Every structure is written in C-alpha cells, then in structure tokens.
Amino acid sequence: MSALDLVLDPLFRLPLITGMAIALVLPPIGALLLLRDEWLAALGLAHLAAASALLGLALGLPAVLGAPLGALAGGAVKSFTGARGNLAYGFMILFGWSALFLIAANTSLGATLGHALVDGQLYFAGALELIAALALAGLAAAALPRLIPLLMRARFFPHDETANRLPAHRWHLSFDLLTALAMAIGTATVGLMGAFALVLVPAWIAFRIAPGWTWTLVLCGLIGAGGYLLAYLAALTLDQPFGPVLVAALITLAATVEAGRGLIGITRARLRRKQR
User: Fold this and answer.
1) Which of 80, 67, 28 is nearest to 224 (CA)?
2) What Rg, from alpha-carbon coordinates, does the chain have?
3) CA 263 to chain centroid
4) Residue partners of 247: CB distance under 8 A and separation at least 6
C-alpha cells in the first residue's frame, strides 16, 4: 500500500486532520513565544499537560480532556504571579516531569502509557480529539489577530502599558491561557516533544529567513504544516512512531535551511570578491 493510500484510508483520516489543525496553530504561537523570549513555555506547559492527561486517564477521562487542566493551571499561575522569561517554565518542566512519572508508577496505567504521551498518540485520535483540535484552531484564528499587535507593542514598547494605564494583564493572561490550551491539546495528540518541536522549530526557521513579521507568521504555518505532512507520510510508510519522526523531520528542515543560508552567504561573498 502506497503512502497516498494510507493517508486516504478512513482509519487514518481523522488523525491526519487532527494533527494538521495542531500543526497550523502551534507554530504562530511559537513565533510569539520567541518574540517574548519565553520559548521554554512550550516545554513547561507540555510537561504539565502530560502529567494531568495521565492523571485524567487514571480517573477515566480521555487524555485530550485531562491535559488542559494542568496546562491551564500552570499558565494561569504564571500570569497571575507576573513571572516573565523562561525561569518559571523551567520549574514547570521539573514539576511536570516528576508528576508524570510518579503518577505512572503509582497507578494501574504504568510507565508505558506515560511514555506514550511523550511519544504521541496521534494514530489513536478520534472524533473527540478532532473536535478539540478544530475548536483550538477556531479559537486561535479569532484571538491571535487581536492579541498579536498588543503583544508586539508590549515587547517593543514595554513602558507604554504602564504610562497609559492599560489593562495589560488581560491580553497577557489571554495569550498565556491560549498557549496552555494549545500545548495541552498538542501534547495529547502529537506528543510532548512533537508539540514542543512544532512550537520551536518552525518559528526559529521563520525568524532566520522571513523579511518581516507577516512573512514570519506565514512561513511558520507553511513550515509547520509541511513538516507535519512529511512526517506523517514517513511515519506511516516506514511504520514508525509519529512523535520522533515529526521531531526528526522538523530538525532536518531546520538544518537544510541553515545549510542553504550558508551556501548563499558563501556565494555572495565570492561575487563581491569578483566585482572588486
């Protein structure tokens, strides 16, 4: 059976659409996190999401419903305490990692399911996961156009909010909760490291090559969707776990782009020498 036949198979249709929605949402959020120097947020919230997802499974809840509880709690605490930068998220990683494997060790689920959350459960995505992913995509499409100008102004003109007595906590909290929800649903579907890779790598690539902010967001979406589709086809064809293949595909794209930038730089330098 060819890769195209596998993709069109009804068994894999829901996972494909579910993951594509996640792959389109997480990269633009990653661009904003890089802009705020808070890229570690993705990994911290993902660990909390994985721990609460496993706890939810132990209580009989689907992972996609349990995961948001821990991530939203972490995002809310971070926002209300006014923490900025990556330090708060570093502690989230430690707490979430510890909780994840303690829950796995002390419930009937065992460590195998804990590792499954880390690796990703996209192939088991059903109607509930699809609804959650599409709802997340709709929420992001409605919220990000309003939040982006406010977050950019806060980043480049930090004293403007204080000088004009703006209710900045509203949009910072909104973005923190949106990030937490996105990481929770992403972790419950494409896995902890897969979700983190979708946040970090497309945004990093876009920051390296995009001529402006609009192009940064466009490239984030294209790289995230393209890398996801490449990984999905490769994982199905080669019968490999999806999460590690997704991470490998995105890293390969990043290395290819960086190598291309290096070759372009060398070519330009040689042309300048010839012109002299």
Assistant:
1) 28
2) 20
3) 30
4) 193, 194, 197
Its pTM stands at 0.82
Q: Judging by beta carbons within 10 Å of its beta carbon (0-12, 13-18, 19+), is residue 222 exposed, middle or buried?
A: middle
**CB hemisphere CA count around 172 (13 angstroms):** 21
Give the angle subtended at the CA of 124 by the CAs of 121 and 76, to the nearest 5°. 50
The answer, yes or no, to whether residue 187 has pLDDT greater than 80, is yes
The CA–CA distances, whole Å, from 18 to 30, 121, 161, 238, 265 equal 19, 11, 38, 21, 39
Q: Where are the alpha helices (DSSP H) in 9-157?
A: 10-35, 41-58, 63-80, 87-105, 110-119, 127-156
Are 183 and 45 in contact by the 8 Å Cβ rule? The answer is: yes
Closest by CA to 189, choosing from 254, 252, 234, 131, is: 131
Average pLDDT score, the chain? 81
The answer to whether residues 190 and 120 touch, using CB atoms and an 8 Å cutoff, is: yes
Using the structure block, give the residue that is written with the tokens 């703006």: 166
Which amino acid does the sequence have at 235?
A
Q: Identify the structural domains of the chain with CATH numbers, from first to last.
A: 3-275 (1.10.3470.10)
Q: What is the pLDDT of residues 16-31, one digit of tens each?
A: 899 999 999 999 999 9
